[in-house]
Design brief:
Layout (H helix, E strand, L loop, with lengths): L3 H6 L1 H8 L7 H40 L3 H37 L19 E6 L12 H7 L3 E2 H7 L6 E2 L1 H20 L3 E2 L5 E2 L1 H7 L11 E2 L4 E3 L4 H6 L5 E3 L5 E10 L18 E11 L4 H19 L3 E5 L11 E9 L4 E10 L3 H6 L2 E3 L5 E3 L1 E9 H11 L1 E2 L2 E3 L5 H4 L3 E2 L1
Parallel strand pairs: 4-9, 8-14
Antiparallel strand pairs: 1-11, 2-3, 5-7, 6-7, 9-10, 10-16, 11-12, 12-13, 13-16, 14-15, 17-18, 18-19
Helix pairs in contact: 3-4, 5-12
Length: 423
């Protein structure tokens, strides 16, 4: 959430920055300023009234001590009216504060200066590309056909148990899935991230804290009886570990990694591009989350990008990195890099990771601050990245590593799998 003080002081810059998202935010920003002005004026009136009431109370005490009861009683009637007005102003102030907060929740983060302009995925900027795209043999199959051929993933069985988008992993498919999770976690912990295990359901406050609510409410599974939400990513519970926390500057950076299943309704997703593992309602992902000093967060973001690059280099998958344009960035992000692997059998790029800097946007919602050496507190910066999302990584491995004899396991995963090939 953008800070109202920042909006007031930088109104034109905020409107201009949000235009990168193809959003005409002038009216929205002006409403925020107007609500804040009303709130501030109400607060001033309330403060003055409370000061006046305190003064009258002192005068009443002095009059009573001096035996001037009639004058004291007259002032008591005046204070009674002040108390009524005070109660009214407090109610108005609470209403305005809540209305302002709810309005600020609707305003997306401002993109960083280097975010390219654009309306959608076609306008994203490719900043890096690596790996050799293999030439497959005649008769090579997409991963959903390979899954059926080698009986390692059963989409129909998952649909019977739950519905479409909930696959069942079997045999070597399940072991490969577990190997990827362990490998990703090991790489992250070796890089200095502390592993955490977190709940897979969150409350409403956690959803608002990281920005999934109210923006993505319709995309999350809601357990209505308990008013809890299934997590769309480990980012949400891991970042919320630090909601309402004041860290010391020497504790920064805070680096965590966690594996969780993720649940997304993916409403409105249809067509051939969502077949197989391309888009699921339940999938596994290993996440990295950082809390950083504002002066070091973009250096940290570059380090996270290099970390994910290193993993993909070890997996020897062809990939590219995109800097997302304003029109394709997430609601909470100031800058996002997407990683995509090339699916040779499908002849298309598949997104497998997003690495983002949210600057103070989440921290302001979370009330996540740190105390500097001077004793003053300020908002931290939060960052997160997929390291990595499993379904499309698995799809890339199955398709790019297939041979007429079977699917070769990437060398770096063999110690985790305990086998070299799926055949």
């Amino acid at each position: 959430m953008l800070q109202i003080a920042y909006i007031r002081e930088n109104q034109e810059q905020v409107v201009k920055a949000l235009a990168k998202r193809n959003l005409d935010a002038a009216e929205m920003i002006q409403k925020a300023i107007d609500l804040d002005e009303q709130r501030r004026n109400t607060q001033v009136e309330l403060d003055n009234l409370l000061a006046e009431s305190n003064k009258l109370s002192k005068e009443i005490g002095d009059l009573m001590r001096n035996g001037e009861k009639e004058k004291a009683e007259a002032l008591k009637q005046q204070t009674a009216k002040s108390k009524e007005r005070t109660a009214e102003l407090k109610e108005v102030l609470n209403t305005l504060a809540e209305e302002l907060t709810q309005h600020l929740y609707q305003i997306p983060n401002t993109p960083a200066d280097i975010v390219p302009e654009g309306k959608g995925a076609d306008d994203n900027l490719t900043v890096f590309e690596a790996g050799e795209i293999p030439t497959l043999f005649e008769g090579a199959l997409p991963h959903w056909e390979l899954a059926k051929k080698y009986d390692i993933i059963d989409f129909e069985l998952g649909a019977k148990i739950t519905g479409a988008g909930f696959p069942v992993y079997k045999g070597k498919g399940a072991r490969l899935q577990r190997a990827l999770i362990s490998y990703f976690l090991d790489k992250n912990t070796e890089a200095g991230y502390q592993e955490v295990q977190v709940p897979h359901l969150i409350n409403e406050a956690s959803g608002y804290g990281t920005g999934q609510l109210p923006d993505k409410e319709g995309q999350m599974y809601h357990v209505t009886a308990d008013d809890l939400y299934l997590i769309p990513t480990a980012e949400v519970p891991v970042t919320n570990l630090y909601r309402d926390v004041i860290l010391q500057e020497y504790e920064l950076p805070v680096c965590n990694t966690g594996y969780t299943p993720c649940f997304r309704r993916e409403a409105g997703s249809y067509g051939a591009h969502v077949r197989g593992l391309n888009r699921l309602h339940q999938f596994d992902k290993v996440e990295i989350v950082r809390i950083e000093h504002p002066e070091k967060s973009y250096e940290a973001l570059d380090g996270m990008v290099e970390h994910v690059k290193n993993i993909l280099n070890e997996l020897k998958l062809p990939y590219r990195i995109l800097r997302l344009c304003g029109g394709d960035m997430g609601f909470t992000s100031a800058l996002t890099y997407d990683f995509e692997v090339f699916s040779t059998a499908q002849d298309r790029w598949l997104e497998i990771s997003s690495v983002s800097n949210f600057e103070t946007f989440q921290a302001n919602r979370l009330k996540l601050r740190f105390k500097g050496k001077d004793g003053k507190t300020q908002l931290a910066h939060t960052l997160n990245g997929s390291s990595l999302a499993l379904p499309r990584v698995l799809a890339g491995i199955l398709e790019n590593y297939q041979t007429p004899e079977g699917i070769v396991i990437p060398e770096v995963l063999r110690p985790y799998c305990g086998f070299d090939m799926i055949s």
